[in-house]
Amino acid sequence: MIRCATIGTNFVADWFMKAVQACDGITCSLVYSRNRETAETFCEKHGAGRWCTDLMEVAEAEDVDAVYIASPNSLHYEQAALMLSHGKHVLCEKTITSNEAELKELVRIAGENRAVLMEAMRSVHEEGFLRLREVLPRVGTIRRISFQYAKYSSRYDKFKAGIIENAFNPEFSNGALMDIGVYCVHPLVRLFGMPKKIIADSLLLSNGVEGAGTILASYDGMQAELLYSKITNNRLPSQIQGEDGTLVIDNITNICSVVFYDREGNAETVIDLPPEHSLDGEVKDWLRMIETGEGVGEDNECSLMELRVMDEARRQAGIVFPADLRKITGCGLN
Questions:
Q1: Mean pLDDT, the chain, integer
Q2: Which one of 66, 114, 190, 261 has the minimum C-beta count within 10 Å?
Q3: Coil, strand, or helix at residue 185?
Q4: Structural domain boundaries in the chain
């Protein structure tokens, strides 16, 4: 039985706790929050063992084998490094770190301490994505990919009213790419590897945070366009276009329906799953990696490629986070 702790008490942490309750082989023994009242409330809500307000207590806890991190992006590296250096397995919410350099260091620390580090990229651990891999050969030689995800943020109205919350605060390594675009970038590199060339453009808001953006990624014989936004909604599906046909994907962040169209326009539904939104798949994969060690390197490499693409997109857009300016030293930051 893996005994886990949680860092963060937001709605995503609620989803994680539901997955813990639904999965065999894991239980929550400790809840961390900087705020005592928040920690206590979250602990009672989910029936966790106990709570604390000291990160070092989590790292040194003898009844904690693994830690789930759902704090703001800018805190991921420091918190994950602390936990990994104490031999705790870590499942860290997307985007796993602010940049590739931070993740490279976390992978090193994890290896030294025989701990499993995994990015909580929910969408690629669900059945829909696994089935998408299986039907890819139907389209023949792939030439074009269009992944898009745009969701008007509930916090954008507050931003326009002058109230800047974490989601629109670059101090926390946030913005459209880190929060929304990553759902397009990660499936791309997981399916097709690292692009040969990247061209990116961003729509920046008044405080310099990215509200929306576009990435054009080039491969040998293939192009991909990634469109993402936190200030508009998209109504078009994603597509994978090949010489023999096209796969139309209902939602790249939660694949439930995929229709194959041949060159004559004949349609065939090749994936038809009930709508579901849970973290069960990623929790089960994390537990499997902890138990067997299989797939850890491949999973980490996908996250490294994801951040390599995102780092380059931010460089072209002139987006620099405070985390980019900090020097990584061992298992901490200066």
A1: 95
A2: 114
A3: helix
A4: 125-272
